Amino acid sequence: MSFIKTIKDIPKEEYLAPGHRLCAGCGAAIAIRLALKALRGPTVIVNATGCIEVATTIYPYTSWRVPWIHVAFENAAAVASGVAEAFKIMEKKYGVKRPDVIAIGGDGGTFDIGLQALSGALERGHKMLYICYDNEAYMNTGIQRSGATPRGAATTTSPAGRVIPGKLERKKDLIEIAVAHGVPYAATASIAYPVDYINKVRKALETEGPTVIHVLTPCVPGWRIDPSQTITIARLAVETLVFPVYEVENGKYRINVMVKKPKPLEEYLKLQGRFKHLLLPENKWLLDKLKEDVKWKWERLLKLSNL
Does the model's pTM come out above 0.85? Predict the structure, then answer.
């Protein structure tokens, strides 16, 4: 497999077996299943604690059909670094074919707990891909807010009520943090655009040096959405500019899904229980702040892409 052009070209092989315990409509499950379709040969997966790890490896079962390592919340990137360097030495000494190394973590294990390890791995320049599946909260441990939780979202630690109307702070920008390390390739992706996503995983694997992909993965219980709406909501995140799909290759920005006529942000919010309070008149001020966040990010991205 090289790069694919249409959905019909997506490989049929399944490296994430069915029978796991992830929720019906789980965006993270879709993201990992699609990412594994970009594999090009021997691969080692390093998986931080989180929804994916817990629900795919309930002892004595596993859904992984490739070599897989479970590590702590905070050290996925560090362990992946060690794996990559060990195989580099084995290739040099013994001629062992070096596998691709992919680290996988949720937003809690990436934006927050694992950020130090990720930063170190990017700075050192190991040949590895880091994929963050972002469901915008600590879903595995009870839907607590994380650095990836957007402004206004209700979680169990930023509840929407009379005191505060959800989280008050902006979402951290993971890709810009990665780009600041001078990595050769970093990108956002959406499960609603599988061809773009799979091709980005393959491009990252074929790039020398550390690479990062940030994929948005709607969470059914955490976002309080209907399981049948996962892909619809993921697509609306792009169409309303909440989650732009773009890549940064050797410092050059490129928007992969250009949205010329954005849909109203309310179309995205109204499908999610975590945002229903933002549509109330008394919380219009916070909704306006969220709209400002979205507008600022998109306009900045257009400038960086020379558009």
Answer: yes
